[in-house]
Amino acid sequence: MNRLTLFLQVTRARTLPVMLAPVIIGAALAWQEHAAFQWGWFLLTLIGALSAHLGANVTNDVFDFAEGTDQAAQKLVTEGTTLATGSQALMSGTYSLKGYRVLAVALFALALVCGLMLTIFRPWAILFGVAGFLLAFFYVALPLRLAYVGRGLGELDILISFGILPLVGSYYVQAGEVTASALLASLPVGLYTTAVLYFHHFLHWRADAEVGKITPVVALSERNARIAGGVLLALIALTIIIDAAVQVFPWYSAIAALTVIPVFVALSQATGNLKNYLKLMAANMNGNLEAALLILVAILLRGFAHI
């Protein structure tokens, strides 16, 4: 395995699109509303956000491995009811725990440098980065361990750190202010990302229960968690429609609400079989990216129409 392939595996870089979406949409919305775009600031925002995202992935694996969550999942894999999804390089010994920690520090350091550079032009930019780091770190770290204590705190953490903060922060870097439209725009984007993590819990909830990680599936039961997942999807569609209705997004962006339909179908067919849950995750990720693309195109069309 070459170094690049190993880096992509260790950082779980395949999840980067869920961070790309809010950063790009936030910047595009600011451009559409203010008719100005700073490419240098945008690139710094993008590099910083993506670095922080990868650092959060690595940090999550470090703490889950230390807690024994991934080892518990690995033991249950042979039963066909659980899929081990985290820290595979740690489990196989391909990458050391020390290496994971060094990589996490390096990625967060790069994000910090980008934040400090942006602060020269946008004084409050660093606050978005610091808030995101704290939420990402304490998602799994003591004393908060939001992903482990349940009560929906882990999902709220993801909504803020992978939806609201990157979109509103990207908007602020371009516009120099935070507006109600940016906050409203961040809700459907953040909720869709939250759904990505939410449905991911179904793959290994038995292992989570064994180590005391109170995810929604553990707390609610598999059946009730599927119902709650349906409510989450309905909320995503509703927030897209509301944003279109109040003209945060162009009215025709409401079509993006239809992207939850294939996810609903996949959810209705997910009844405990791991293959069905993997199909659900794929449908949700596709829906997330399709909705983001439709919203982005709608924003750009409105922006160009006003030039």
Give helix % range: over 70%
Approximate strand percentage: under 5%
Number of helical runs? 15
What does the overall shape look like? globular
Structure, described:
The protein has one domain (21-305). The relative contact order is 0.13. The chain is 75% helix and 0% strand. It has helices at 3-11, 17-34, 39-67, 69-76, 88-92, 97-119, 125-138, 146-149, 153-175, 180-200, 205-210, 216-220, 222-245, 260-269, 274-305. α2 runs parallel beside α15, α10 (180-200) packs antiparallel against α15 (274-305) and α14 runs antiparallel to α15. The mean pLDDT is 90. It is mainly α.
Features:
307 residues, globular, 0% strand, mainly alpha
Give a nutshell description of this structure:
Helices cover 75% and strands 0% of the residues. It contains 15 helices and no strands.
